[in-house]
Amino acid sequence: MEKKIEEKRCVLCNKPYSYKYSMFGRVCLDNMYSLLRISKSPRFIWNKELYLCTRIAWRNHKLFLNRNQKYNLTQKYIALSYLNKMECNFLDDIKEQIKNDINNISIFSKNVIETISFSLNDIYKLYNYWQKFNDLIANFQNINWKELDEKLAKEFIEKLSFIFDETKMSNPILYRAFYWMQYQFWQIIVIGGLLADMKLSARLLNNSLAPFRKEPDDLIIDDEETINSITESKIFKEKIHEILNNYGKEGKINSQDYENTDIKVIKFEDADLLLALHKATILINGIKNEDNTWNLDIEINDTYDFTEFKSLKEYVDEKEKILMDIFATTLNNLGVASSKYGVIKIFDVKLIFHLDSYKVDEMKVII
Ligand SMILES: [Zn+2]
């Protein structure tokens, strides 16, 4: 006859073990002694697990707990120790909750309601993800994004794709930690790496990364460098020409006149401008001077949405195709996940500038 043995699983690593202890397998128990810097139990101690729990109770100034209370305290204390090893301020409120629950454990604590529940196995897995993430980020310095090898870049980014796992969103602890890792990913890999030479795209993506539970501010851009990069672009010049040709015949231009037509849509060729302002519309108001130049007030508006790169690569010129391909495929998918997490948010962006005595190129423009 087969004897059925109830399988015990380690509360930390979830591996089955057949040992006398109530919570941990032998290896994990040893690891907990070193994680918590508790010196090994004396030889005559028979139950090394209970000894660990008692030491943890003493450390927390709790002297008369029963066995279950000690086990409960131990799991919370270990979870807190792991979370303290992860430098992440998005987890601060969770740590406070666990500390609070630890404080509430006492010999009288039978009916105290816990403020946060978790499985130690989730915390343990999270800590492993955390270390994996930090190791990969440390390797990131060795990648030369300037001479981008598309295959390598994609491989590297795909190695990090585990931090975009949407199934983690339902757990408040995992949610915060994965949020934080994604936040770092966009800051370090994309803004500091892939977008290092693309100032406007970097600035807008940076603005869309709202810290935990914060909304991004709308952005007004009027600095000279950005405005120059726009006014010097061929697409911009063609667009001004097109609009003035259509609506400026009487020596003045009023954006009201063309507001509801496709003519106001502007799509740049420069990868930085296209990534930053891919759904932009342009409004122009102004008057023509006697010397045929124009004084123009210009407004370019867009709603920044990082997840809309799929169709963009066809617009850019050849040398930036590789970068755009990464944005349109790999990063687009990750951006969708980060939007669900709330790491990447949508906001309105407005560029405002004035052009005095602007000469409209009289050459025939092919559009
Ligand atoms: Zn274990």
**Major sheet strand order:** 3-7-6-5-4
Percentage of residues in DSSP E strands: 5-15%
Structural class: alpha+beta
Question: Helix content range of the residues, please?
Answer: 40-55%
Give me the strand/helix succession. Answer: EEHHHHHHHHEHHEHEEHHE
How would you portray this structure in words?
The chain is elongated. β5 and β6 (294-304) form a beta hairpin. Helices cover 45% and strands 11% of the residues. The chain is built from 13 helices and 7 strands. Among the domains are: 8-112, no CATH class; 219-320 and 343-358. It has helices spanning 26-35, 48-59, 67-85, 92-103, 120-139, 150-159, 172-194, 199-208, 224-231, 234-247, 271-276, 321-328, 330-341, and strands at 8-9, 16-17, 219-221, 252-253, 281-288, 294-304, 347-358. With 367 residues, it is α+β, with helices and mostly antiparallel strands. The longest helix is centred in the middle third of the chain and has 23 residues, at 172-194. Bound molecules: zinc ion. Zinc ion (ZN) binds at residues 10, 12-13, 15, 24-25, 28.
